[in-house]
Predict the structure.
Amino acid sequence: MSSPRIPPSADRPDQIDTTERSSHHPDAARIRMLYVVGGGPGIADRVDVSDLFATRLARQGFEIDWVMEDARPGAAWVATHWRGAKAFVIHRSRRRGLAGKLLTKLREVVGDLRVGWLVLRGDYDVVQVRDKFLVAVLALAAARLRGTKMTYWASYPFAECRILDAREGRSRLPALSLIGGKTAAWLLYKVILPHADGIFVQSRQMLEDFRDQGISPDAMTPVPMGIGEHLLEHPGGEVVPHTALYLGTLNLVRRLDVLVEALAQVRTQFPDAKLTFVGDGDVPEDRARIERAARALGLEDAIEITGWLPVEQAHARVCAAAVCLSPFYPTPILRSTSPTKLIEYMALQRPVVGNAHPEQSAIIAESGAGICVPWSASDFANAVSTLFADPAGAEAMARKGRAYIRGKRLYSLIAAEVAARYEELLRPSRASVAGTTAADRPVQSDPVGKVSRRPA
């Protein structure tokens, strides 16, 4: 099993690209935003940040200043540029070990305080915080003093994840993780979300989960993951028969050893079947769990873990796979996700096998691009074997997937509706649909039905 090194990103914050900021539509309204990107270093390169905000919303008149983290060691707070916009970057400490981790955490706290000052002295129309808690409280307080709107972008249930990791033994310091998770959840549901001017959630399921915590659905707008048009133009490549592929994180919470067990069953019908994992874990144990499962079943030569690859190479691997896999372990923290890998597979015109999951099940059923199964090794194995046995039928499914993405999940469609929501938040009198709420107007690209109005 090989693991090529990750190349440096072409979009590091210290590299300047001024093309996007100057190319917005001349009739677009100017909106000044401070966007604090949480979730860890590298998150700004995710397409729902780099494509949706830094590219498409910038073209529509958004002038965004960024606050983000960089995994590389460096100065604690650096004013620089990222994708043609001003960026404030927090680097990790050069110190190693526990002392380095503590210093890096201290830098984050100091950075949070600096954000409050930026809000107080800046000319922003809106400050948005993504997946962070302490800084969201500070930004909220500063925004109220300044008279600025404050929005929160929730991409993942991080507080619940910390709690679950502590309870299931995945944390190095379970007690600290449990305290941190519960504190973050209290801040999120009791302070941040009830007082935010707008809340953007990753899926309708997340909206339902937040509503169960007492958050009004009127304040929430579901924004599913999308892709750029360039993937629809990908030429594809030669498909290697009897190959399956998984693209994404190998995090332990995803229980990906189920795919190793499934491969063992598939090989009873297709002895040459192989499985590739394109991605890596957050810690060594994530990968080690899969490797142990492969050794236990004698599948070392049938499984490859590539590590993280440049996006072009990763997509080439996807195009060569006969079947692509989208497993989501049925745990509450994954139910609210919006499956990026699924729509990438479909855009690249590959048939998919996924398991039951609120958004994923709906996409597969509506598009006809694959097979949705319960969570078990045998169900994954049966579905993969079905597609291996009928290559023509599998390719027909794959074509349906690309057609679905073209009409539902392009960021050119999503960006226009997200921009309209910000316009509504900032200028309520210009709202185009009087008497409706954000939850009634999710982006049209979201394939799941209307939000159900359950009794309280």
